[in-house]
C-alpha cells in the first residue's frame, strides 16, 4: 500500500491508503477488506507454546518471525481471492510488558522494530503498557533514547531503536489534571482504503482499555489518569465518526476480556456491547478485537463480530468483509476466523528473524550471569515422586516463587499452581549451587503470563481432582496441601477424589471460601484439560513465569542459599491409629505430616480459642525426648479442659502467629487438623513438667548442630520441641524486664543465674537460651524487672513470632512488686569538666498525636533531674516536625523547640539544637518521620562552631542515618563531637528460628559503616595530633562485637567495657539486658573519665515512668588547663562545684576508670574530638536552632 493523503481531524487522525493493482472490474460498489489482529503479544519474539481452540490444542505455536510469515501468507491468500482487497494489521493491547528476556531486557524496543517490520497499522494499549509508566512506553513508541541518568542496562542504551510506525488509539484514558488524552494520543483514527478502481472506503478504529487498570497496575503508574467507561466512550466517538466523518465501518480495539460461548461470546466485551446497544441502538460497531485474558474468541454479539487471537503471537484473528462504497459500511457482519501460527507451510520471515537474532546476541552475557544459589549439589529435579502424587522438588520451588513474587507485586495471594508439563528441564546448578539466568530460563522457557485469579474452594477441589481424570496431567502447588483417596464410587474416569484441603497456616480450605491463586495463562485457558480454571475471575497479571522464577531466585538468594522445598503437599489417604508421641517424634517436623490419623485417649489441657485447643496423651510413651502434647485445630469446637477425646484428622506442620516473613524464618507447630472430635468422657489433666525442677532449659546452646542431631539435653530448640504442646509450669518466676505485647521473659524461681542490680540477665555471646517466654495474653499487665510472679503458672508450650513460649490462661498471673527504682546519675556539674550524654529518645517529634506531652515532660525531667543537665547531649531518633506524616518535609525545628522549652520549664538550661537534615525517606526509620542524629548544647558552657555529615553521598549509608560531626569549643579546647546511629538489626535471622545457627546480615553493614567512621577519625587525628576523640550514640551492636572493635581501633577506649559488668546494659530485648549505647574516648581522656549508665527506661514500663526504650549513657571529661588565646575570654561554664561521687565496684555509682592506658602527648590549645555517631541518613542542610522564648 502507498500512503496518498493525510487529513487532520478534530478528535482523531485520518489516513488514506491506496493499492495499485491491475483493474479487474470497471465498476465496483464494494471494497473487500481484511483486518488481521493480534493481542497480548507481550514481547514474545521467540516464545512458542500451545495454541488452544475449542476442542483442541496445537503445540509449538508462535514466534515473531513465523507470525510475520503467517500475516503475509494470510494477506496473500486474501488478495488472491479478492484482487482489489485491502488489508490492515492491528494490535489490541499488551504488545509489550511481561516480556521474555530478548525483548524485556532491552525495554521491549526489539518488539517495536518487529511490529514495524510486520507492518502493523493501528494499535491500542493494555494494562502491561503501564508496567514501567506510560511515559516510558511513549518513549519507546517515539524511538527516543533513554535519559543519561536512567538505570537501564548498557545494552539498552546502545540498542539501535526506531520509532513505531503504528497509530496508537486510546479513547477512554484521560489525564486527571486536564481531562485530555495523554501524550497527544488520539481516541480514534480513520483509514481510507482505495482500490485499484479508485473506489474508496473508510474504516474507523477506536481504542479502549479495561477500566480495571487500578486493580492490575502499581498505583504510581496509574494514579494520574482517569479511566472512562468503555461503552460510553465508544458510543461518544462512534457517533462522532458516523455523523461528522461519515464513517460507518467501525472497528474497536478493546483490551477487554472476552470468552467464547458457542456462536456468541460472554465476558466483559459482551457486557460492553450490551451497554453500547442500550446507549445507542443505531451504533455501527462492526468488529471488536478483544484481549487481556488470552482466550480464543470468535463469535457474534448482535451485529458485532468479536475476535481474540489467544496471545503471544500464537494465533492471528482475521475478519473479512465487503464495505459498500455508497453506505461506507460493511454489507453484513464480517466473517472471522482465528488461525494458529505454526511451522506448517511457513518459512520464518528473514527480516524479523534478524531482529530477533540481534536481540538474542545482545542479551547473551546477561543469560550467563549468576542470579543466585540453591542449597543442593548438582540439580533440583523436576522428576515427580510417584505415579499417584506426582509432586516434584522443582515444582514446589517454582510455585513457591510464583506465590512469593505475586505478593511482591501487591497481590495478597493464597496459592500458586502450575502445570507439570510447563517445567521443561531440571534446574542445573554450578559450583556451590550457583544458578545462572540461562539455567533458570531453561526450566520455564515459555514465558507464560502469570495471572492472578479468584477461585472458590469448590473450584480448587475441582481442578485438583481433574488431575486424576486420566492421570496424564498434574499440577504443582504452593500454599496448600491436600489428601486424596480412591473414589468410593469406583468411577474409572476419576480414580481419586480429594478428601481434605488445608492452607499453609493450618486453616482448612472451605468450599464456599474465596481464594486468590496464581496460575499461568495456559491453565487459565483450560490447558491440559483443567477446565476448572476457565470459569475463574481474573484479578490481574504479573511477570511471565520465566522472569518470575529468575526474580525469585535472585531475591531469595540475597540472604543465603535457597532451601529446596520438601515434598508432602499431596498425600494419598492412608489412615492409621497413632499416639501423640509417635506423631511428635524426635524431630521438629513430624514424620506423619499430611497423613490421616486417629488419636485416642487424649485429654484437653488448654483452650486457646474457638478453633484451637491442646491435648495430652493419657498414656504417654515414657520418652521425655518426645512430646506427649499437641495442638488441635477444629473450627467452632465446644471442648473444655478435662474432656477426654478421640480425634480424627490430618497431621500438619503449621506456622503460628508471626511477622510477614515467618514462612522463611520460623519453626512450625505440629498440629492435628481435626475432621472429627468425639468426646468419650472426662479425665484428670496430667501434672505439668515444672521447668527448673523436673527439667531445666539448656543454658549453653540455642542449637549448635544445625538440627542434625535431636538433643533436648543440650540444645534449647530441641528441648522446647520435646515439650511442644505439653503442659509446663514455672514456680515463682523471676521477671527479667518489662511486659510488652502481653509477654514476659522470666527465669524459674529456682534459677541460680547471676542477675544484675535491676534483676535482669546480662547478655552474653550464647544469648542466654535458658530464658523462658510466657504469653499472658494481657497487654495491660503491669510488670517490670525485679518483679516476680506469685506461685506457679502453667500452660502448654507453643511457638509464635519466632520463638517458643508458654501459653498461659488469661488472668492467671499475679505480680509481686520488686520495688525497682529509676536511677539518677551522681555525676555533678563542674566548672572545669565537660559532661556529654547520649540518649535515644525514640521517635520524638513536635506532633502531639505521635509524641505525647507526657513523654516530652518525662524526657525533659530526665535531662534536668536524672542527668543533671549535661553540657552536650547527642540525641537519637529526633523526627521531623510532623513525625510520621509523610509530606516531604524534613525540618526538625519545631521538634527541637518543643523539647528545649520543656527542659526550660523543668528548670534546665536554654539549650540550642543542631542537626543536618536528611533527605526525605532516605535515612531509615518510620516512613515520613526522617529520624536523624542531633545535638543539644548549652551555649553558656560550650561554643558551637560548625557541623558536617559523615557518609553524605556514600552508597553505604543508603537507608541509614548519617553520622553527625559537630565542632565545639570548651574552655578554649576545640571539640569534635560525632553522633552515630548505626543500621538496625532488622533483617537478621531470629535467634530461635528455622535457620541455625542464625546469621546476622545487618552486622556486615555496621562493620563497614564503622570502618568509614574510624577512617574519618584517623584522618582528623592525623591532621591534628592534639585532637581528642569522643564517640557517642546508639550503635545497634554489643560491646564484644566486631563493630565496636573497629571503632575502638588503636586510639579509642569503649567506656562500656570498663563499666562494672553487673550493671552494664542500656536496652532490654527477648529477656536479655544488653548494651547498644556506647561512649568511646581517646585513651588519654579515658584515664580521668567518669562514665555512667543511667537506668531509667529499659527495665520499666511506661506506667513506671519509662520515656524511651533506651537508657541514656553519660561521661564527664577532664582536660588540662588551657591558657586563653589572645583576645579570648574564659567563659563561665557553669557550676563551680567540683564534688564528684564515683561509682564503686558494686555498680551503684559511676566508676572512675582505672585501666592502665598509655598517655597521649598533650599540647597547649590541643583539640578534642567527641564523636557521637548515628548511622542512618542523608544529610544535606546544617541548621542551628536557638529556641529560647522571646520575652
UniProtKB/TrEMBL annotation:
The chain crosses the membrane at residues 1164-1185. Its main location: secreted. Residues 371-533 form the 5'-Nucleotidase C-terminal domain. GO terms for molecular function: hydrolase activity, acting on ester bonds; metal ion binding; nucleotide binding. Pfam families: 5_nucleotid_C, Exo_endo_phos, Metallophos. Residues 1118-1153 are annotated as: Disordered. Residues 35-296 form the Calcineurin-like phosphoesterase domain. InterPro entries: 5'-Nucleotdase_C, 5'-Nucleotdase_C_sf, 5'-Nucleotdase_CS, 5_nucleotidase/apyrase, Calcineurin-like_PHP, Endo/exonu/phosph_ase_sf, Endo/exonuclease/phosphatase, Metallo-depent_PP-like. Residues 837-1110 form the Endonuclease/exonuclease/phosphatase domain. Keywords: Cell wall, Membrane, Peptidoglycan-anchor, Secreted, Signal, Transmembrane, Transmembrane helix. It is found in: Secreted, Cell wall. It is a peptidoglycan-anchor. Residues 1-26 form the signal peptide. GO terms for biological process: nucleotide catabolic process. Residues 1126-1144 have a biased composition (Basic and acidic residues). The keyword Secreted applies. It comes from the Bacteria. This is 5'-nucleotidase C-terminal domain-containing protein. It comes from Enterococcus cecorum.
